[in-house]
Specification:
Blueprint (H helix, E strand, L loop, with lengths): L1 H6 L6 H14 L15
């Protein structure tokens, strides 16, 4: 989540970054193996 906020200006706010993170994890739930054990970004 931190890299999203630092890389893209439109995701600097916590709310925007959180929405983006939810969208990524819902579209690609198996993109990384450790995401299966981490349901949220925190």
């Amino acid at each position: 989540m931190r890299w999203i906020r630092k890389k893209y200006k439109r995701f600097r706010s916590f709310k925007a970054a959180h929405k983006c993170w939810q969208r990524i994890t819902s579209r690609h739930p198996r993109l990384f193996a450790h995401w299966a054990r981490t349901p949220c970004f925190w």
